[in-house]
Amino acid sequence: MDLRPDYNGMEPLHKSRKNKEDKFCGVCGDRALGYNFDAISCESCKAFFRRNAPKGLDYFKCPYEEKCKMDVSNRRFCKRCRLRKCFEIGMRKEYILTDEEKMRKRQRIDDNRRMRDLEKSMAQSGVVSPNLGGMSPAKLRSLEPEEEAAINEIVRAYRASLEIPIESKVPRDNANFAALVNIAEVSVRRVVDMAKKLKAFKALSQTDQIGLLKGGSIELLILRSVISFDKENNYFLDPYDKDSLALTQDQFKEGIEKSDMGMPGMNIPGGPTGLFDDHMKFVKSLAIDLKADETMLILLLMLSLFSPDRPNVTDKVYISAEQDKYALLLQRYLESRYPYQVARSVFPRLLMKLTDIRNLNEEHSQVLLKLNPEGLQPLMKEVMDLHLKKKGTDTDTDSDASSIEASAVVWLQY
What we know:
Elements lengths: L9 H12 L12 E3 L2 E3 L1 H10 L26 H10 L10 H26 L20 H17 L15 H7 L1 H11 L3 H4 L3 H23 E2 L4 E2 L10 E2 H9 L13 H19 L4 H12 L10 H22 L2 H29 L9 H7 L1 H6 L5 H15 L3
Antiparallel strand pairs: 1-2, 3-4, 4-5
Helix pairs in contact: 2-3, 5-7, 5-12, 6-10, 7-9, 9-11, 9-12, 9-14, 9-17, 10-11, 11-14, 12-13, 13-14
Keywords: DNA-binding, Metal-binding, Nucleus, Receptor, Transcription, Transcription regulation, Zinc, Zinc-finger
Protein name: NR1H3-like protein
Pfam families: Hormone_recep, zf-C4
């Protein structure tokens, strides 16, 4: 018969609580949670040591002949004696991380969180994924030097394009759909600037360059909106732009709702709210569900830009080869970030977003082509082809040649 008292599981709890309460800071005597820099210390002394240990004892002077007593009430009075006590109890300054080490640690934490979130997302959506917990970073595939160089080229080009200034500061409050179009003008200019920095794009003829930019402009804008979406604050803003230029979800929704979707020819399920919901669903499916980082989204931007089925492009073989190259780079990048099984699951889901964006492009186009061009920026008129729509449906060679020449003037000045 077991005669031991029945504590109903409380004894371990008491012991655990007692052990935690028994820890006291070796510097000031305050309650401590555990070891910091190889010695038991409180949170206050931990922070003090991190800030001041790199400076060394000689940096500080004691006004009281170095006989200061350290306790909770007077620990702030003398930094030298407090730091000396930190060293005396065994706190080690070599355990303090440098800024570079902090960045690497933060990156590892972000990577682990992203992998956990990704596994959870795939499980919820029915995608079979392996147990990631026991997988080592050593199993990740490193990028080849030429692959890394190709990715760095497009990332640098994208980031450099963010320096294009916003010339027309359209108010965000009470904006209608035409105002939203003008707000997007800087995004189009930044896409053009990025493309013109790429060797593969510059190798194309002027006609093909215009065909890719003009034919893919709306899809490229939608993809850029994913990159600029701040999921913490729920607004759209490029990194170098002022906070006052942010476009909130509510402002975006209000602007779409002010478009005349009741006009003849409109066929968008749910009307204005449906278009907004579809756009935000696409944005969040990439930014939140798939945890796509900046590089993944820029690679998707390249896949969309180099689409050989755009109207008026001639060198379809070259453009198709470039698209295949960026698809392979996306796959290799995923394999360098995630275990192979996860990368293999995520890759096709990212490619499917290019199909989703075509459908979303159709919805946006229905609204854009009904807008009155008066008051729109010249580049945005070119994006929507409104100046041609107003002229009729001439398709003869002279008209095509003149339209291409007019497009070149508008597109390539940026």
